[in-house]
Amino acid sequence: MLLVPEGALRLKGAASEIIGLIDRERTVDAITLHLQQSHADADAKQIDAEVKQFIEKLHKRSVLLFRS
Q1: Is residue 59 within 8 Å of residue 65, measured between CB atoms?
Q2: Helix (H) or strand (E) holding 8
Q3: What distance, in Å, lies between the first and last C-alpha atoms of the chain?
Q4: What is the pLDDT of residue 42?
Q5: In angstroms, rounded to a whole number, what is the distance separating the alpha carbons of residues 61 and 22?
Q6: Nearest one of 13, 12, 34, 9 to 23, comparing CA atoms
Q7: What does pTM read for this prediction?
Q8: CA 58, 25, 50 angle in degrees (round to 5)?
């Protein structure tokens, strides 16, 4: 469960793992690479797409802000 201004997001599957990897140091690519290495049996392109989709969803809801 991730608390957000409008309520809460229920984290399913890889979502909680992605959230656990988000810090002020890792890039989206670094998070993706970590998950691809941790789940070598999974499709790397699917992991890439899912990470980007999830992070974009958080960004659109103003839960996650990017720094330049």
Answers
A1: yes
A2: strand 7-9
A3: 28
A4: 95
A5: 16
A6: 34
A7: 0.82
A8: 35
Write out the two tokens for 39: 């789940």
Place of tokens 């990470």: 51
> What is the spatial distance between Cα 51 and Cα 57, in angstroms, rounded to a whole number?
10
- Residue whose pair of structure tokens reads 């608390």 in the numeric block: 3
Backbone angles phi, psi at 3, to 5 degrees: -80, 130
Counting every residue written for the chain, the total comes to 68
Beta strands 2-4 and 7-9 are antiparallel
pLDDT range class, residue 56, cuts 50, 70, 90: very high
Token pair for 65: 């802000």
* Angle, helix 14-21 to helix 28-38, in steps of 10 degrees: 130
